[in-house]
Amino acid sequence: MTSGLIPEYPAQEELPPGTWRWLQGFTRWIGIWCFYVGYRLRVRHRERIPATGPVVVVANHSAMVDGPLLYGLLGRRSSFLIKQEMFRGPLGWVLPRIGQLAVRRGEVDRAPLLTAVRLLRHGGVVVVFPEGTRGTGDVASAQHGAAWLARAGGARMLPVAIRGTRRPAGSDRRFRPAVDVLIGQPFAVPPGKGRTALTTATTEIRNRLAALVLELDAIRCLGRPGAARTERA
Asked: Does residue 216 sit in helix, strand or coil?
């Protein structure tokens, strides 16, 4: 049963109201082909992405291009929780029309979270980059948000690791750098209610994502000695 705080959408609406579905499909298609042209893109275990049903994707975040990259790669219509500062100028017109949700940082912002829950309850996909990961690749500061969304929306979690999008400090501009994406196994958050259960679920998400990033670093290091040490991206 749906809470009165979270009114229903029509059954087909796995995207926010006001989304131009044709524009989202078009931009996803354009975006992914641009990445294949601009990068040597290697995606591992794409088959792990659930084809149907509600999913909360959580990924490490090293560079601005991580979001657009995932947006094209997922193969499903999706909504990202994006900092409100990005909704300015031309992006301020485009992002809402392709189904993205603006979030105010540093304060409780219930509206986009409740919208995300509605999308999940209609089988949608919501993508969260844990706060504090961009620039460092650190996944230890994942907050309760992803776990809360998965529990409230009845969704599975899907961890995704991305490396190679961030240019190492002091390096020259790179020509078609190798970018690796490793899709983890989808999983259900641990059952339970209350803050203790939410903390347990958050720890599970954090640990799985951290392990996936380390696994991808090892793969990259084996493929090109020194990659994991120098890039961390």
From this structure: helix
8 A C-beta contact, residue 13 and residue 76: no
Q: Based on DSSP, count helices (H) and strands (E) in the chain, helices before strands.
A: 7, 7
Query: Is residue 7 very low, low, confident or very high in pLDDT (cuts 50, 70, 90)?
Result: very low
Is 106 within 8 Å of 126 (Cβ atoms)?
A: no
- Alpha helix locations (H) across 50-128? 66-73, 89-97, 110-121
Beta strands 125-128 and 79-83, pairing class: parallel
Report residue 136 as tokens. Answer: 């460092």
Q: Are residues 148 and 155 in contact, defined by beta-carbon separation less than 8 angstroms?
A: no
pLDDT tens figures, 98-114: 999 998 876 667 888 89
Question: C-alpha angle with apex 130: 67 to 110, nearest 5 degrees?
Answer: 95
Domain residue limits, the chain = 21-230
Closest CA to 210 of 127, 155, 142, 153: 142
User: Which tens digits make up the pLDDT trace of 124-140?
Assistant: 999 999 754 444 443 43
